[in-house]
Amino acid sequence: MNLYAVRAIYLFELARTWRTLLQSIATPVISTSLYFVVFGAAIGASMNQVHGVSYGAFIVPGLIMLALLTESISNASFGIYMPRYAGTIYEVLSAPISPLEIVIGYVGAAATKSVILGLVILLTAGLFVDFEIAHPVWMLIYLVLTAFTFSLFGFIIGIWADGWEKLQVVPALIVTPLTFLGGSFYSISMLPEVWQTITLFNPVVYLISAFRWTFYGVADVNVWLSFGMTVVFLLACLGVVSWMFKSGYRLKN
Amino acid sequence: MSAIIAIKALSKTYASGHPALKQVDLEIQPGEIFALLGPNGAGKTTLISIVCGIVNPGGGQVLVAGHDIVRDYRASRGQIGLVPQELVNDVFETVWATVKFSRGLFGKAPNAAYLEQLLKELSLWDKRDAKIIELSGGMKRRVMIAKALAHEPNILFLDEPTAGVDVELRRDMWAMVRRLRERGVTIILTTHYIEEAEEMADRIGVIRKGELILVEDKDVLMRRLGRKELILHLKEPLTSLPASLADFKLELIESGHGLRYGFDSQHDDTGIPRLLAAISAAGLELRDLKSKESSLEEIFVNLLKEGV
Ligand SMILES: Nc1ncnc2c1ncn2[C@@H]1O[C@H](COP(=O)(O)OP(=O)(O)O)[C@@H](O)[C@H]1O
Ligand SMILES: [Mg+2]
Questions:
Q1: Whose CA is nearest to atom 25 of ligand 1?
Q2: Domain B5-223 in CATH: superfamily?
Q3: How far is A78 from chain B (nearest CA, A)?
Q4: How far is B178 from chain A (nearest CA, A)?
Q5: What is the C-alpha separation between A130 and B233, in angstroms, rounded?
Q6: Is A95 on the interface with B (CB under 8 A)?
Q7: Which pLDDT score is estimated for B308?
Q8: B196: which of A102, B56, B191, B303 fits an S-S bond (Cβ 3.0–4.6 Å)?
Q9: For residue A125, what are the CA distances in angstroms to A21, A40, A130, B240?
């Protein structure tokens, strides 16, 4: 294992975040705060409790997931797309480093940022609403698992994209809508029956449901099913990445 | 001595169907400076990129210090530093951060003292905290050299190092190449400037359309460069050379109207007075004579034109 290389990539990528602190941490925190103000405080005040928690508290896990997914994908995809675009990728390709080490460096850095971001949003949420965390250890585990999985997904997008547009298109047109429709702001039991069934095809439903369970002990769908789905998605992403490196897909001619 | 880089029957066809390398065989000796010379599109960058792991090889095999570049890529790549043709940098990084990154990437423990010395040698030390985007083009190229040397490689590839580079940097670069060679670093550079190859290289390879058409010691080539020709035009054509001129290695040209005499212009005794005396003794009358140089440039031009 070329640990110096993994460390070099990891620290280099984190340094990039540090440099663009405003963009990488402050922006998502501010936008999430706005959600709390609008949905939690303003609208939530006149809403009933959901699953026995106040509406403002109910949306906290969903909002964290929303930020976690979009930021994991955009950080990781940007992290690998940028050197491809600038041409500096030559150095990584010519280094004595395995695909796994490359992935750990880039994806690890992106996931670290997301986890930090998730925790910062969690703290921010505490300023607006009262909530408790029923299973803090599971909450952390799930936070890390999701951050890593979607950073890996973002990494794949960053290798697949051959233009800035493609880099934006998956997060904007697929992930954000799925997250909004995935129960961030409502329990799917509040939907008409037909929509409840349709919603189950949205993978993000499982993520949000399980994450909310770690907070309040209630879930829309079976928690183990959710964990299982996340792990399956993680393994699928790993499979795609390993194929990409083996074939040299969009990395090597 | 066994070769530090052994390339056997290497070929590469890009996805576009373009055959960029055709069955290239080449051995590079440890410690030498090898210049790969060829026009644009000949396959120089492709060759280097394959050895460094940036482009997948098609057919054939490459060993670096005995390590297969595909199967044993860690061992082979660790030996190599590459300064690519294009100027590419992480423009928002500082010089120091980017050089440190390169060293780590190649699996070397941090060594601030070495990096400091390296940056000083390349006149980059004053700029270590500057962002790369603030540097001039020449400075950016120095940064790329520093990155390539950050992990103390045994082998350095320089892909068109002096294309579009100012005189000062060019001189510095050549001085650096000589220093590296003294430390035992093997250097492979590509260029389409003949003077560069002449100035720097121990051996020269000429590549054209993906084929390595010549590999030669520079001195041998220079000797060829030193050769001149004397063309003698005769009043009356000859059908064969008179026996009295047999010793002169003459060649009958222009269907007997001319004689070609090759000689070494750097040699004190060119043999010309003796030749002229022998010609007049043989009763041949001259209409005209001229001498011309066969330059290295001309050798290459002819080589490259062959078969077109
Ligand atoms: N990525 C690529 N895809 C398709 N063709 C390529 C690619 N890179 C180089 N080529 C072609 O391969 C040939 C050799 O290119 P290259 O190795 O860059 O030559 P040189 O470095 O000698 O100028 C050229 O004809 C070039 O157009
Ligand atoms: Mg080239």
A1: B41
A2: P-loop containing nucleotide triphosphate hydrolases (3.40.50.300)
A3: 14
A4: 24
A5: 107
A6: yes
A7: 40
A8: B191
A9: 20, 10, 8, 104
